[in-house]
Amino acid sequence: MFAIKRELKLNNIEISLMRGNAGFKRFVYNYGLELIQASWDFEGVKASDSKRIDAIKKVFTSWTMQKPEYAWMKLYSSTVYQSAFIDLKNAFARWRSCLGGFPKKKSKKKGDSFTVYKTAGIYLEKGKPALAFTNRVVIQAGKQITLPGLKQLRLKERIKFICSSQTFTVSRTADKWFVAFVLDAEKIPPIIHPIEKIGVDLGIKVLATCSDGFKYDMPVTTKTAKTKLGKLQWHSRNKVLGNKKLKIRASKNARKYYTRLAGHHARIANIRQDTTQKMTTDISRKAYIIRIEDLNVQGMIANHKLANAVSNNCFYEIRRQFIYKQAHYGTKVELVDRWYPSSKTCSKCGYVQDMNLSDRVFNCKRCTHSQDRDENASTNLENAPKEKVRLA
Ligand SMILES: [Zn+2]
Description:
Blueprint: E1 2-9, H1 12-39, H2 49-62, H3 78-96, E2 113-117, E3 121-123, E4 131-133, E5 137-139, E6 142-146, E7 152-159, E8 163-165, E9 167-173, E10 176-183, E11 195-202, E12 208-210, E13 215-216, H4 220-235, H5 252-286, E14 287-293, H6 297-302, H7 304-313, H8 315-324, H9 326-329, E15 332-336, E16 361-363, E17 370-372, H10 373-382, E18 389-391
Parallel strand pairs: 11-14, 14-15
Antiparallel strand pairs: 1-7, 1-10, 2-9, 3-4, 5-8, 6-7, 9-10, 11-12, 12-13, 15-18, 16-17
Helix pairs in contact: 1-2, 1-3, 2-3, 4-5, 5-8
Bound molecules: zinc ion.
Residues 346, 348-349, 351, 364, 366-367, 369 line the site of zinc ion (ZN).
């Protein structure tokens, strides 16, 4: 699977339409969540969560939606509430299999989102041959997109090729709106990789060092943005966004501050996402086998000195991206054992020696080979023995 996410360029009318759709989804989700909990009070009714949600959906469609006070719901696409129920089902399934907490009510504060999709169907008109519709929306290359049930919308960045998808999720982070959709991998031509095997050393100083000599840096902007964020948070350390229990209402300034803060966080996250996405795509394009260290991310975050750098460079996220891009680029991601001494081994003669974290250059004590620490490590990852490597 391969996903595309683009920022939408919306005018005020479109923004309120998106807010309306998100509000509809929130309403339906919370409605379903309340009713399913209420249904547990009736003893003697034995049914799975999924069956209960189906029954609630029936009540919603044939009764709640028909009430005059809910006439506004007819303004929105029916797939919005259908997918709200699907979301609810998934949330309960995750909770039942201990993958997530108990489903929480959706709130405006946590951001907006909703999903629309195209349904397959047949169009009949007297005296004319029946027309069958596919469930896929064709998206033309360019800066426009037409979502099912919504009109044409503008994008900030163009889509580079013609493609198709069924389901579209619109979401808001701070004051930016995005649309995301998934393409099927088999619809994309296979790619020839110029390099057979590459070792990628993920680092603290440099984001990634590859065994073909290429380096990827984290842009300096994240650092400046982080400093700004730190200052903002320190200056406003006593600001409180109201308190429901004490019935203190949030001040206008506090609200303004929290909107700004969310914007800052989103900006940093965006820069990071952008850099890591480009890096993982680039490497997935050029190499067939990608070897990275199987890092104990939990252990490194516990080490306070490394913590910021680790979460900053988001090793785990990079690994996730490499793995999900396998299907799209036809790559193979391999993890090298955590205890394999990739930075302590000489990439030329194999001699193992101690290295301090501060040593930036590897100087071999046996063959006098001298190489940048990260480059040496990436070569060792590429050439790691088979028994130290497992498929991700
Ligand atoms: Zn050596």
